[in-house]
Amino acid sequence: MRLFFALFGFALLTAAAPAPKPVPVTRTASGTYVLGSPAARVKLVEYASYTCSHCADFSTQSQAVLKGKMIASGSTSLEFRHMIRDRLDLAAAVLARCTGPRGFFPTSAAIFAAQPAWLEKGIEFQQVNAARINLYPRPAQLKAYADGAGLTDLVKARGLSAAAIDACFADTAEIDRILAITAAAPPEVDSTPSFFINGKVMPHGGWTQLEPALRTAGAR
């Protein structure tokens, strides 16, 4: 009987434990998204492309520590800036942003995780259909490439409706905003991914090289 009450009491304590607070996401005046506390002492800026294999590697390798610990602790924030390289990249950016501030970072991670499959499919689709699709208006081109690569199905599986997707590709102002983020990149951004910590450009490299620099700056 004592064991029963001890276990029951433990269950009540476990059930009463408060859920962790969600990490804040904000949108800047230029249209970029920032994950983490606005008061974070370490401000990481990433310039990345969805069709960049090194960016996909960074997303996967950094996930547990960067987002799971450093950003979750409040010590670090991450601002993602698009560095658009091609139409498939732009199509992926439209879809990631279509999920809104709360969905942007998880959807970006999902796009990077599935990159080998959709990128190969998208390149093949583009090679076969480019002459025809290039006659379309730009929003219709991007939607066609997203459909052909399987990107549209990827975000639909995450709960985005067909109507919402159509509306996002029809939003030419948002597409222009994505391209403007790329155009505003400083000259130090000559490859992807590129990183800045508290305004200082980092040497080119992946998560293995960046993690020590973040910890030196105060990430924990």
The assigned structural class equals alpha+beta
Strand line-up of the largest beta sheet: 1-2-4-3-5-6
Rg, Cα atoms, Å: 20 Å
The mean pLDDT is 93
Oligomer: single chain
SSE string: HEEEHEHHHHHHHEEH
Shape: globular
Question: Roughly how much helix do the residues carry, as a percent range?
Answer: 55-70%
CATH class: Alpha Beta
Descriptive account of the structure:
One of its GO terms (molecular function) is isomerase activity. This is Protein-disulfide isomerase. Residues 1-21 form the signal peptide. Residues 30-203 form the Thioredoxin-like fold domain. The chain has 220 residues and is α+β, with helices and mostly antiparallel strands. It has a single domain, classed as Glutaredoxin (3-Layer(aba) Sandwich), CATH 3.40.30.10. It has helices at residues 2-16, 53-71, 87-98, 100-113, 115-133, 138-149, 151-156, 162-170, 172-183, 207-217; strands spanning 25-27, 33-35, 42-48, 76-82, 194-197, 200-201. Strands 1-2-4-3-5-6 form a six-stranded mixed beta sheet. β1 and β2 form a beta hairpin.
